Amino acid sequence: MKLTVWTYEGPPHVGAMRVATAMKGLHYVLHAPQGDTYADLLFTMIERRNHRPPVSYTTFQARDLGADTATLFKKSCQDAVDRFQPEAIIVGASCTAELIQDDPAGLSETMGLSIPVIPLELPSYSRKENFGADETFYQIVKALAKPQERTARVTCNILGPTALGFRARDDVEELTGLLSDLGVQVNVVAPLGATPSDIARLPAAHFNVLLSPETGEAAARWLEKNHQQPFTKIVPIGVGATRDFIAEIGDIIGKPVLIDESRLRMPWWSRSVDSTYLTGKRVFIFGDGTHVAAHARIARDEMGFEVVGIGCYNREMARPVRALAKSYGLEALITDDYLEVEAAIEALSPEMILGTQMERHIGKRLGIPCAVISAPVHVQDFPARYSPQVGFEGANVIFDTLIHPLVMGLEEHLLTMFRDDFEFHDDAGPSHHGGKAKAKVEAVVEEAPAPQDDNIIWLADAEKELKKIPFFVRGKARRNTETYATQKGLHQISLDTLYEAKAHYAR
Hints:
Blueprint: H1 12-22, E1 26-31, H2 39-46, E2 55-57, H3 69-84, E3 88-93, H4 104-109, E4 117-119, H5 129-144, E5 155-159, H6 168-181, E6 185-190, H7 196-200, E7 207-210, H8 213-227, H9 239-253, H10 266-272, E8 282-287, H11 289-302, E9 306-312, H12 318-327, E10 333-334, H13 338-348, E11 352-355, H14 357-366, E12 370-372, H15 391-417, E13 457-458, H16 460-466, H17 471-487, E14 492-493, H18 495-506
Parallel strand pairs: 1-2, 1-3, 3-4, 5-6, 5-7, 8-9, 8-11, 9-10, 11-12, 13-14
Helix pairs in contact: 1-5, 5-8, 13-14, 16-18, 17-18
Protein backbone atom coordinates (compact mmCIF):
# COMPACT_ATOMS: atom_id res chain seq x y z
CA MET A 1 0.00 0.00 0.00
CA LYS A 2 1.20 3.53 -0.77
CA LEU A 3 -0.19 7.02 -0.41
CA THR A 4 -1.00 8.79 -3.67
CA VAL A 5 -3.10 11.70 -4.93
CA TRP A 6 -5.06 9.45 -7.29
CA THR A 7 -5.61 5.72 -7.10
CA TYR A 8 -7.14 3.22 -9.52
CA GLU A 9 -8.21 0.86 -6.75
CA GLY A 10 -8.87 1.31 -3.06
CA PRO A 11 -7.98 -1.26 -0.38
CA PRO A 12 -9.81 -4.62 -0.46
CA HIS A 13 -12.39 -3.65 2.17
CA VAL A 14 -13.74 -1.10 -0.36
CA GLY A 15 -14.36 -4.04 -2.69
CA ALA A 16 -16.27 -5.74 0.13
CA MET A 17 -18.33 -2.55 0.52
CA ARG A 18 -19.19 -2.64 -3.18
CA VAL A 19 -20.59 -6.17 -2.80
CA ALA A 20 -22.49 -5.40 0.42
CA THR A 21 -23.95 -2.19 -1.01
CA ALA A 22 -25.04 -3.99 -4.17
CA MET A 23 -26.97 -6.60 -2.21
CA LYS A 24 -30.13 -6.42 -0.10
CA GLY A 25 -30.59 -8.01 3.31
CA LEU A 26 -26.83 -8.19 3.88
CA HIS A 27 -24.89 -6.02 6.33
CA TYR A 28 -21.15 -5.38 6.58
CA VAL A 29 -19.61 -4.81 10.02
CA LEU A 30 -16.19 -3.26 9.49
CA HIS A 31 -13.62 -2.99 12.27
CA ALA A 32 -12.16 0.41 11.40
CA PRO A 33 -10.81 3.51 13.11
CA GLN A 34 -12.39 6.92 12.89
CA GLY A 35 -11.39 8.27 9.46
CA ASP A 36 -11.93 5.08 7.48
CA THR A 37 -15.69 5.68 7.44
CA TYR A 38 -16.13 7.06 3.93
CA ALA A 39 -18.59 4.58 2.40
CA ASP A 40 -21.42 7.12 2.34
CA LEU A 41 -19.34 9.45 0.20
CA LEU A 42 -18.43 6.72 -2.29
CA PHE A 43 -21.91 5.46 -2.98
CA THR A 44 -24.32 8.33 -2.37
CA MET A 45 -22.26 11.06 -4.04
CA ILE A 46 -20.54 9.24 -6.91
CA GLU A 47 -23.17 6.60 -7.73
CA ARG A 48 -26.05 8.78 -6.52
CA ARG A 49 -27.73 5.95 -4.61
CA ASN A 50 -30.91 6.94 -2.79
CA HIS A 51 -30.02 5.02 0.38
CA ARG A 52 -27.00 4.67 2.60
CA PRO A 53 -24.67 1.69 2.17
CA PRO A 54 -25.30 -1.16 4.65
CA VAL A 55 -22.00 -0.73 6.49
CA SER A 56 -21.48 -0.33 10.26
CA TYR A 57 -18.14 0.68 11.75
CA THR A 58 -16.60 0.20 15.14
CA THR A 59 -14.93 3.62 14.64
CA PHE A 60 -12.44 3.19 17.47
CA GLN A 61 -10.20 6.13 18.34
CA ALA A 62 -6.64 6.37 19.60
CA ARG A 63 -7.75 6.38 23.22
CA ASP A 64 -9.58 3.04 22.67
CA LEU A 65 -6.39 1.22 21.73
CA GLY A 66 -5.39 0.86 25.36
CA ALA A 67 -8.79 -0.64 26.21
CA ASP A 68 -10.76 -3.60 24.84
CA THR A 69 -11.36 -2.96 21.11
CA ALA A 70 -12.52 -6.59 20.74
CA THR A 71 -15.53 -5.85 22.95
CA LEU A 72 -16.20 -2.74 20.88
CA PHE A 73 -16.32 -4.89 17.74
CA LYS A 74 -18.72 -7.41 19.32
CA LYS A 75 -21.02 -4.61 20.42
CA SER A 76 -21.04 -3.16 16.90
CA CYS A 77 -22.01 -6.58 15.48
CA GLN A 78 -24.88 -7.01 17.91
CA ASP A 79 -26.11 -3.45 17.36
CA ALA A 80 -26.11 -3.94 13.58
CA VAL A 81 -28.12 -7.17 13.83
CA ASP A 82 -30.64 -5.64 16.26
CA ARG A 83 -31.08 -2.42 14.32
CA PHE A 84 -31.03 -3.54 10.65
CA GLN A 85 -32.20 -7.16 11.05
CA PRO A 86 -30.30 -8.48 8.02
CA GLU A 87 -30.53 -12.03 6.67
CA ALA A 88 -26.74 -12.36 7.02
CA ILE A 89 -23.71 -10.25 7.91
CA ILE A 90 -20.15 -10.14 6.67
CA VAL A 91 -17.38 -9.04 9.05
CA GLY A 92 -13.85 -7.81 8.45
CA ALA A 93 -11.23 -5.20 9.20
CA SER A 94 -10.00 -2.15 7.33
CA CYS A 95 -6.33 -1.79 6.43
CA THR A 96 -5.66 0.28 9.57
CA ALA A 97 -7.60 -1.98 11.94
CA GLU A 98 -5.76 -5.01 10.56
CA LEU A 99 -2.65 -3.79 12.37
CA ILE A 100 -4.17 -4.28 15.85
CA GLN A 101 -4.98 -7.95 15.07
CA ASP A 102 -8.34 -8.22 16.81
CA ASP A 103 -9.47 -11.09 14.50
CA PRO A 104 -13.07 -10.09 13.61
CA ALA A 105 -13.69 -13.56 12.15
CA GLY A 106 -12.88 -15.37 15.37
CA LEU A 107 -14.72 -12.82 17.52
CA SER A 108 -17.92 -13.08 15.46
CA GLU A 109 -17.93 -16.89 15.69
CA THR A 110 -18.06 -16.72 19.50
CA MET A 111 -21.13 -14.49 19.56
CA GLY A 112 -23.72 -17.13 18.70
CA LEU A 113 -25.76 -14.88 16.40
CA SER A 114 -28.94 -16.33 14.93
CA ILE A 115 -28.08 -15.42 11.34
CA PRO A 116 -25.18 -16.52 9.10
CA VAL A 117 -21.94 -14.65 9.80
CA ILE A 118 -19.45 -14.69 6.94
CA PRO A 119 -15.90 -13.70 7.93
CA LEU A 120 -13.61 -11.99 5.43
CA GLU A 121 -9.85 -12.37 5.40
CA LEU A 122 -8.71 -9.63 3.03
CA PRO A 123 -4.95 -8.93 2.92
CA SER A 124 -4.99 -5.14 2.87
CA TYR A 125 -1.32 -4.64 2.25
CA SER A 126 -0.85 -7.00 -0.68
CA ARG A 127 -4.18 -6.94 -2.59
CA LYS A 128 -6.67 -4.29 -3.71
CA GLU A 129 -10.29 -3.40 -4.34
CA ASN A 130 -11.23 -5.73 -7.20
CA PHE A 131 -9.69 -8.67 -5.37
CA GLY A 132 -11.67 -7.66 -2.26
CA ALA A 133 -14.94 -7.66 -4.21
CA ASP A 134 -14.16 -10.97 -5.91
CA GLU A 135 -13.13 -12.66 -2.64
CA THR A 136 -16.12 -11.27 -0.72
CA PHE A 137 -18.63 -12.48 -3.31
CA TYR A 138 -16.91 -15.88 -3.42
CA GLN A 139 -17.10 -16.26 0.38
CA ILE A 140 -20.79 -15.28 0.36
CA VAL A 141 -21.61 -17.82 -2.38
CA LYS A 142 -19.54 -20.51 -0.70
CA ALA A 143 -21.33 -19.97 2.61
CA LEU A 144 -24.91 -19.63 1.36
CA ALA A 145 -25.37 -21.57 -1.92
CA LYS A 146 -27.32 -24.81 -1.36
CA PRO A 147 -27.51 -27.92 -3.59
CA GLN A 148 -30.91 -28.19 -5.32
CA GLU A 149 -32.71 -29.34 -8.45
CA ARG A 150 -32.31 -27.42 -11.69
CA THR A 151 -35.19 -25.24 -12.87
CA ALA A 152 -37.62 -26.76 -15.37
CA ARG A 153 -36.82 -24.09 -17.98
CA VAL A 154 -33.30 -23.26 -19.12
CA THR A 155 -32.06 -20.55 -16.77
CA CYS A 156 -28.80 -18.84 -15.93
CA ASN A 157 -27.37 -16.56 -13.28
CA ILE A 158 -25.63 -13.27 -14.10
CA LEU A 159 -22.57 -12.98 -11.88
CA GLY A 160 -20.25 -10.08 -11.09
CA PRO A 161 -22.06 -6.71 -11.25
CA THR A 162 -21.53 -4.69 -8.06
CA ALA A 163 -22.13 -1.20 -6.74
CA LEU A 164 -19.74 1.35 -8.29
CA GLY A 165 -19.40 -0.92 -11.31
CA PHE A 166 -19.08 0.69 -14.73
CA ARG A 167 -22.63 0.83 -16.24
CA ALA A 168 -23.55 -2.31 -14.25
CA ARG A 169 -27.21 -1.36 -13.80
CA ASP A 170 -27.84 -0.90 -17.54
CA ASP A 171 -25.65 -3.84 -18.55
CA VAL A 172 -27.78 -6.18 -16.44
CA GLU A 173 -30.98 -4.90 -18.07
CA GLU A 174 -29.59 -5.18 -21.60
CA LEU A 175 -28.12 -8.63 -20.96
CA THR A 176 -31.37 -9.90 -19.43
CA GLY A 177 -33.25 -8.84 -22.56
CA LEU A 178 -30.64 -10.44 -24.82
CA LEU A 179 -30.83 -13.74 -22.93
CA SER A 180 -34.62 -13.66 -23.04
CA ASP A 181 -34.45 -13.32 -26.84
CA LEU A 182 -32.25 -16.43 -26.83
CA GLY A 183 -34.83 -18.37 -24.81
CA VAL A 184 -32.88 -18.24 -21.54
CA GLN A 185 -34.48 -16.90 -18.37
CA VAL A 186 -32.38 -15.24 -15.66
CA ASN A 187 -32.57 -17.06 -12.33
CA VAL A 188 -30.54 -14.68 -10.13
CA VAL A 189 -28.42 -11.57 -10.71
CA ALA A 190 -25.72 -11.35 -8.05
CA PRO A 191 -24.41 -9.54 -6.18
CA LEU A 192 -26.30 -6.55 -7.65
CA GLY A 193 -29.83 -6.60 -6.24
CA ALA A 194 -29.55 -10.08 -4.70
CA THR A 195 -30.47 -11.11 -1.15
CA PRO A 196 -28.80 -13.90 0.84
CA SER A 197 -31.86 -16.03 0.00
CA ASP A 198 -31.22 -15.42 -3.70
CA ILE A 199 -27.61 -16.53 -3.27
CA ALA A 200 -28.92 -19.82 -1.87
CA ARG A 201 -30.86 -20.32 -5.16
CA LEU A 202 -27.84 -19.91 -7.45
CA PRO A 203 -27.31 -23.69 -8.00
CA ALA A 204 -30.82 -24.01 -9.46
CA ALA A 205 -29.67 -22.41 -12.74
CA HIS A 206 -28.25 -24.43 -15.62
CA PHE A 207 -25.22 -22.19 -16.18
CA ASN A 208 -23.72 -18.83 -15.23
CA VAL A 209 -23.02 -15.74 -17.30
CA LEU A 210 -19.87 -14.06 -16.01
CA LEU A 211 -20.48 -10.39 -16.71
CA SER A 212 -17.53 -9.05 -14.69
CA PRO A 213 -14.52 -11.39 -14.32
CA GLU A 214 -12.81 -8.91 -11.96
CA THR A 215 -15.53 -9.32 -9.33
CA GLY A 216 -17.23 -12.64 -10.08
CA GLU A 217 -14.77 -15.19 -11.46
CA ALA A 218 -13.86 -16.87 -8.16
CA ALA A 219 -17.54 -17.51 -7.40
CA ALA A 220 -18.18 -18.73 -10.97
CA ARG A 221 -15.31 -21.21 -10.74
CA TRP A 222 -16.51 -22.47 -7.36
CA LEU A 223 -20.04 -23.02 -8.69
CA GLU A 224 -18.64 -24.83 -11.72
CA LYS A 225 -16.59 -27.16 -9.53
CA ASN A 226 -19.10 -27.78 -6.77
CA HIS A 227 -22.47 -27.49 -8.57
CA GLN A 228 -21.48 -28.44 -12.14
CA GLN A 229 -22.54 -25.09 -13.60
CA PRO A 230 -20.49 -24.02 -16.63
CA PHE A 231 -19.89 -20.28 -17.05
CA THR A 232 -19.40 -18.09 -20.11
CA LYS A 233 -15.89 -16.90 -20.99
CA ILE A 234 -16.90 -14.09 -23.39
CA VAL A 235 -18.07 -10.70 -22.14
CA PRO A 236 -20.46 -9.33 -24.81
CA ILE A 237 -19.00 -5.82 -25.20
CA GLY A 238 -18.90 -4.82 -28.87
CA VAL A 239 -20.52 -6.25 -31.99
CA GLY A 240 -18.07 -9.10 -32.56
CA ALA A 241 -17.97 -10.11 -28.89
CA THR A 242 -21.78 -10.07 -28.67
CA ARG A 243 -22.07 -12.36 -31.68
CA ASP A 244 -19.44 -14.67 -30.18
CA PHE A 245 -21.30 -14.62 -26.85
CA ILE A 246 -24.54 -15.62 -28.56
CA ALA A 247 -22.76 -18.54 -30.22
CA GLU A 248 -21.28 -19.53 -26.84
CA ILE A 249 -24.76 -19.58 -25.28
CA GLY A 250 -25.91 -21.82 -28.13
CA ASP A 251 -23.07 -24.24 -27.38
CA ILE A 252 -23.92 -24.32 -23.67
CA ILE A 253 -27.66 -24.95 -24.12
CA GLY A 254 -27.05 -27.34 -27.02
CA LYS A 255 -29.07 -25.71 -29.77
CA PRO A 256 -28.49 -23.01 -32.41
CA VAL A 257 -29.73 -19.54 -31.50
CA LEU A 258 -30.56 -16.57 -33.68
CA ILE A 259 -30.90 -12.96 -32.65
CA ASP A 260 -32.57 -9.89 -34.11
CA GLU A 261 -29.92 -7.31 -35.01
CA SER A 262 -32.36 -4.69 -36.28
CA ARG A 263 -31.45 -2.30 -33.42
CA LEU A 264 -27.75 -2.51 -34.26
CA ARG A 265 -26.61 0.75 -35.86
CA MET A 266 -22.94 0.75 -34.94
CA PRO A 267 -21.48 -1.00 -38.07
CA TRP A 268 -23.19 1.39 -40.50
CA TRP A 269 -22.34 4.46 -38.43
CA SER A 270 -18.73 3.31 -38.17
CA ARG A 271 -18.47 2.87 -41.95
CA SER A 272 -20.07 6.27 -42.50
CA VAL A 273 -17.49 8.18 -40.46
CA ASP A 274 -15.21 10.48 -42.47
CA SER A 275 -11.97 8.50 -42.52
CA THR A 276 -9.91 11.65 -43.07
CA TYR A 277 -10.80 13.01 -39.64
CA LEU A 278 -11.78 10.06 -37.44
CA THR A 279 -10.96 6.50 -38.48
CA GLY A 280 -7.33 5.49 -38.59
CA LYS A 281 -6.57 7.52 -35.48
CA ARG A 282 -3.95 6.23 -33.03
CA VAL A 283 -5.48 5.25 -29.66
CA PHE A 284 -4.08 4.34 -26.24
CA ILE A 285 -6.24 2.06 -24.08
CA PHE A 286 -5.95 1.69 -20.30
CA GLY A 287 -8.35 0.49 -17.58
CA ASP A 288 -9.48 -2.76 -16.01
CA GLY A 289 -8.49 -5.86 -17.95
CA THR A 290 -11.98 -6.82 -19.12
CA HIS A 291 -12.86 -3.45 -20.64
CA VAL A 292 -9.40 -2.95 -22.11
CA ALA A 293 -9.60 -6.28 -23.98
CA ALA A 294 -13.11 -5.52 -25.23
CA HIS A 295 -12.30 -2.00 -26.39
CA ALA A 296 -9.05 -2.99 -28.07
CA ARG A 297 -11.07 -5.30 -30.32
CA ILE A 298 -13.72 -2.64 -30.89
CA ALA A 299 -11.15 0.07 -31.62
CA ARG A 300 -9.18 -1.93 -34.17
CA ASP A 301 -11.73 -4.25 -35.78
CA GLU A 302 -14.98 -2.27 -35.54
CA MET A 303 -13.95 1.39 -35.56
CA GLY A 304 -10.83 1.28 -37.72
CA PHE A 305 -8.50 2.88 -35.16
CA GLU A 306 -4.84 1.97 -34.74
CA VAL A 307 -4.12 0.68 -31.21
CA VAL A 308 -0.68 2.00 -30.16
CA GLY A 309 -0.81 1.23 -26.43
CA ILE A 310 -2.57 -1.24 -24.12
CA GLY A 311 -2.44 -1.60 -20.35
CA CYS A 312 -4.35 -2.32 -17.16
CA TYR A 313 -4.06 -1.45 -13.48
CA ASN A 314 -5.42 -4.65 -11.90
CA ARG A 315 -2.56 -7.11 -11.69
CA GLU A 316 -4.94 -10.10 -11.53
CA MET A 317 -5.58 -9.46 -15.26
CA ALA A 318 -1.93 -8.88 -16.17
CA ARG A 319 -1.38 -12.22 -17.92
CA PRO A 320 -4.30 -12.03 -20.39
CA VAL A 321 -3.64 -8.34 -21.07
CA ARG A 322 0.04 -9.06 -21.80
CA ALA A 323 -1.00 -11.83 -24.19
CA LEU A 324 -3.49 -9.49 -25.87
CA ALA A 325 -0.90 -6.73 -26.25
CA LYS A 326 1.57 -9.21 -27.78
CA SER A 327 -1.03 -10.22 -30.38
CA TYR A 328 -1.26 -6.51 -31.32
CA GLY A 329 2.52 -6.24 -31.58
CA LEU A 330 2.72 -4.17 -28.38
CA GLU A 331 4.11 -4.45 -24.87
CA ALA A 332 1.45 -4.13 -22.18
CA LEU A 333 1.72 -1.46 -19.49
CA ILE A 334 0.77 -3.07 -16.16
CA THR A 335 0.85 -0.46 -13.43
CA ASP A 336 -1.26 1.25 -10.79
CA ASP A 337 0.83 4.44 -10.95
CA TYR A 338 -0.99 7.12 -12.93
CA LEU A 339 2.29 9.01 -13.46
CA GLU A 340 3.65 6.02 -15.40
CA VAL A 341 0.49 5.99 -17.49
CA GLU A 342 0.81 9.71 -18.20
CA ALA A 343 4.46 9.30 -19.21
CA ALA A 344 3.52 6.45 -21.58
CA ILE A 345 0.74 8.50 -23.17
CA GLU A 346 3.02 11.51 -23.57
CA ALA A 347 5.70 9.38 -25.21
CA LEU A 348 3.29 7.70 -27.65
CA SER A 349 1.40 10.92 -28.48
CA PRO A 350 -1.86 9.15 -29.40
CA GLU A 351 -4.73 11.03 -31.01
CA MET A 352 -7.22 9.58 -28.53
CA ILE A 353 -7.25 7.90 -25.11
CA LEU A 354 -9.71 5.22 -23.98
CA GLY A 355 -9.41 4.96 -20.23
CA THR A 356 -10.70 5.76 -16.76
CA GLN A 357 -11.40 9.05 -15.04
CA MET A 358 -7.64 9.20 -14.37
CA GLU A 359 -6.88 9.19 -18.09
CA ARG A 360 -9.61 11.80 -18.60
CA HIS A 361 -7.59 14.15 -16.37
CA ILE A 362 -4.35 13.17 -18.12
CA GLY A 363 -5.98 13.87 -21.49
CA LYS A 364 -6.99 17.35 -20.35
CA ARG A 365 -3.43 18.08 -19.29
CA LEU A 366 -1.99 16.86 -22.59
CA GLY A 367 -4.74 18.20 -24.85
CA ILE A 368 -5.78 14.74 -26.06
CA PRO A 369 -9.46 13.66 -26.35
CA CYS A 370 -10.44 10.88 -23.93
CA ALA A 371 -13.43 8.56 -23.70
CA VAL A 372 -14.11 6.81 -20.37
CA ILE A 373 -14.56 3.07 -20.90
CA SER A 374 -13.70 1.59 -17.47
CA ALA A 375 -13.85 2.08 -13.72
CA PRO A 376 -12.71 3.95 -11.69
CA VAL A 377 -15.28 6.50 -12.78
CA HIS A 378 -16.97 9.59 -11.44
CA VAL A 379 -20.51 10.91 -11.14
CA GLN A 380 -20.90 11.72 -14.85
CA ASP A 381 -20.34 8.04 -15.67
CA PHE A 382 -23.52 7.09 -13.81
CA PRO A 383 -25.97 8.74 -16.22
CA ALA A 384 -29.69 8.99 -15.62
CA ARG A 385 -30.30 7.76 -19.17
CA TYR A 386 -30.11 4.14 -20.34
CA SER A 387 -26.49 3.66 -21.36
CA PRO A 388 -25.34 0.01 -21.42
CA GLN A 389 -21.99 -1.29 -22.65
CA VAL A 390 -23.01 -4.88 -23.43
CA GLY A 391 -25.06 -6.24 -26.32
CA PHE A 392 -26.02 -4.53 -29.54
CA GLU A 393 -27.44 -1.44 -27.87
CA GLY A 394 -24.22 -1.24 -25.89
CA ALA A 395 -22.31 -1.25 -29.19
CA ASN A 396 -24.36 1.74 -30.32
CA VAL A 397 -23.58 3.55 -27.07
CA ILE A 398 -19.86 2.74 -27.38
CA PHE A 399 -19.75 4.17 -30.90
CA ASP A 400 -21.06 7.49 -29.58
CA THR A 401 -18.70 7.34 -26.60
CA LEU A 402 -15.64 6.89 -28.81
CA ILE A 403 -16.51 9.22 -31.68
CA HIS A 404 -17.92 12.25 -29.87
CA PRO A 405 -14.68 13.29 -28.10
CA LEU A 406 -12.91 13.30 -31.49
CA VAL A 407 -15.67 15.32 -33.15
CA MET A 408 -15.76 17.85 -30.32
CA GLY A 409 -11.97 17.95 -30.29
CA LEU A 410 -11.92 18.87 -33.96
CA GLU A 411 -14.50 21.59 -33.33
CA GLU A 412 -12.36 22.98 -30.52
CA HIS A 413 -9.31 22.89 -32.79
CA LEU A 414 -11.11 24.84 -35.53
CA LEU A 415 -12.25 27.47 -33.03
CA THR A 416 -8.67 27.79 -31.83
CA MET A 417 -7.36 28.08 -35.38
CA PHE A 418 -9.73 30.93 -36.24
CA ARG A 419 -9.61 32.66 -32.86
CA ASP A 420 -7.85 35.66 -34.39
CA ASP A 421 -10.37 35.99 -37.23
CA PHE A 422 -12.57 39.11 -36.97
CA GLU A 423 -15.76 37.01 -36.85
CA PHE A 424 -14.64 34.59 -34.16
CA HIS A 425 -12.65 36.52 -31.58
CA ASP A 426 -14.07 36.94 -28.09
CA ASP A 427 -15.11 40.59 -28.55
CA ALA A 428 -17.32 39.88 -31.57
CA GLY A 429 -20.27 38.64 -29.47
CA PRO A 430 -22.67 35.83 -30.41
CA SER A 431 -24.30 36.33 -33.81
CA HIS A 432 -27.70 35.13 -32.62
CA HIS A 433 -27.71 37.98 -30.10
CA GLY A 434 -27.03 40.57 -32.79
CA GLY A 435 -23.32 40.80 -32.02
CA LYS A 436 -21.31 42.86 -34.50
CA ALA A 437 -17.94 41.60 -35.62
CA LYS A 438 -15.17 44.11 -35.07
CA ALA A 439 -11.55 43.88 -35.94
CA LYS A 440 -9.64 42.67 -32.91
CA VAL A 441 -6.77 44.90 -31.87
CA GLU A 442 -4.15 43.41 -29.63
CA ALA A 443 -1.12 44.94 -28.06
CA VAL A 444 2.04 43.35 -29.32
CA VAL A 445 3.88 41.65 -26.49
CA GLU A 446 7.44 40.65 -27.29
CA GLU A 447 7.91 38.66 -24.12
CA ALA A 448 8.97 35.14 -25.04
CA PRO A 449 6.96 32.21 -23.66
CA ALA A 450 8.41 30.02 -20.94
CA PRO A 451 10.83 27.48 -22.38
CA GLN A 452 9.58 23.92 -22.78
CA ASP A 453 13.15 22.69 -22.59
CA ASP A 454 15.92 23.93 -20.31
CA ASN A 455 18.01 25.16 -23.28
CA ILE A 456 15.30 26.09 -25.80
CA ILE A 457 12.97 29.11 -25.93
CA TRP A 458 9.97 29.36 -28.24
CA LEU A 459 9.55 32.82 -29.75
CA ALA A 460 6.06 34.32 -29.83
CA ASP A 461 5.47 33.91 -33.58
CA ALA A 462 6.51 30.23 -33.50
CA GLU A 463 4.36 29.50 -30.45
CA LYS A 464 1.38 31.14 -32.16
CA GLU A 465 1.90 29.07 -35.31
CA LEU A 466 2.29 25.88 -33.24
CA LYS A 467 -1.22 26.38 -31.83
CA LYS A 468 -2.61 26.15 -35.36
CA ILE A 469 -1.39 22.56 -35.66
CA PRO A 470 -4.19 20.03 -34.91
CA PHE A 471 -4.40 19.17 -31.22
CA PHE A 472 -3.78 15.47 -31.74
CA VAL A 473 -0.30 15.96 -33.28
CA ARG A 474 0.70 19.23 -31.61
CA GLY A 475 2.72 17.54 -28.87
CA LYS A 476 4.67 15.49 -31.41
CA ALA A 477 5.29 18.59 -33.53
CA ARG A 478 6.65 20.45 -30.48
CA ARG A 479 9.00 17.61 -29.56
CA ASN A 480 10.21 17.13 -33.14
CA THR A 481 10.93 20.84 -33.50
CA GLU A 482 12.82 20.96 -30.20
CA THR A 483 14.84 17.89 -31.25
CA TYR A 484 15.64 19.53 -34.60
CA ALA A 485 16.69 22.77 -32.87
CA THR A 486 18.94 20.86 -30.48
CA GLN A 487 20.62 19.03 -33.38
CA LYS A 488 21.26 22.37 -35.11
CA GLY A 489 22.60 23.97 -31.95
CA LEU A 490 19.74 26.50 -31.76
CA HIS A 491 18.50 27.89 -28.45
CA GLN A 492 15.54 29.83 -29.85
CA ILE A 493 12.76 28.49 -32.06
CA SER A 494 11.50 31.00 -34.57
CA LEU A 495 8.83 30.64 -37.22
CA ASP A 496 11.51 29.70 -39.75
CA THR A 497 12.85 26.99 -37.41
CA LEU A 498 9.37 25.51 -37.09
CA TYR A 499 8.97 25.33 -40.89
CA GLU A 500 12.46 23.92 -41.36
CA ALA A 501 11.77 21.18 -38.80
CA LYS A 502 8.49 20.36 -40.51
CA ALA A 503 10.26 20.02 -43.87
CA HIS A 504 13.04 17.95 -42.29
CA TYR A 505 10.68 15.34 -40.78
CA ALA A 506 8.51 15.26 -43.92
CA ARG A 507 11.37 13.89 -46.03
